[in-house]
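User: For my dataset I need records formatted as: sequence, then structure tokens, nothing else. Please produce one.
Assistant:
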Amino acid sequence: EVQLVESGGGLVQAGGSLRLSCAASGFTFDDYVIGWFRQAPGKEREGVSCISSSDGSTYYVDSVKGRFTISSDNAKNTVYLQMNSLKPEDTAVYYCAAVWGSRVHGDYDSFYKYGMDYWGKGTLVTVSS
């Protein structure tokens, strides 16, 4: 059974930090690009960041560059999103998703345009002002 399980969300004050985790199972982790999306109330879902499990290439949306860092522990089949200097506008449900790497074919800057093969259920991040 394929599973993507997010954890690490919570309530934090502006300027604070959180680390999200996405634990993957049931598929060949190294063959996939793992991404983080977020959806704020009343807004469309947004692709935040992704990492290639095979070569470590990454992508960040402009609004989080310099504040968020994505990393992967292939031995644990887990992807992390370290979020620093959080802002109230980062408040959203954060979802982990996976897409087969060969479909993305290195187009990491547009990974969010590809249909994801697997999704997690999400974890809520709330940043208070």
